[in-house]
Prior knowledge:
Strand content: over 45%
Helix content: under 10%
Distance between the termini: 17 Å
Structural class: mainly beta
Number of helices: 0
Oligomer: single chain
Radius of gyration: 16 Å
Number of strands: 9
Amino acid sequence: TQSASTDANTLDDYEEGSWTPTVTSQLGSITTVSSSSGNYTKIGRLVSIRCNFVISNLGTGAGALIVNGLPFSAATITVGVAENASIGVVGAAETNAGTLFYISKYDGTTLIANNNYNASIVYFV
Length: 125
């Protein structure tokens, strides 16, 4: 619970919690996302999220991954890294605003694979 203070040096907005990402594909559709979980830390306007999801059946999914359901609507996402268990660090995650972000290769090309993904994002609300 926020305890507002008039002192600019007082930390009065800190929160930790969990969230469940919803994963879809930019093109086609993913048949099975077998697990997804995430947690966050919010300090003032700065939100740091971590999430993991497993795509066990790709179906017709292609293009970038779209991760929906951020715990707080983003003004902008400033830092993002995604990692695929079999490929290593593969993508930047970014969006201009809203409750979702995209994961694609650094050059913006197709990324989706049947595998485990981890993403860590820092953004402002």
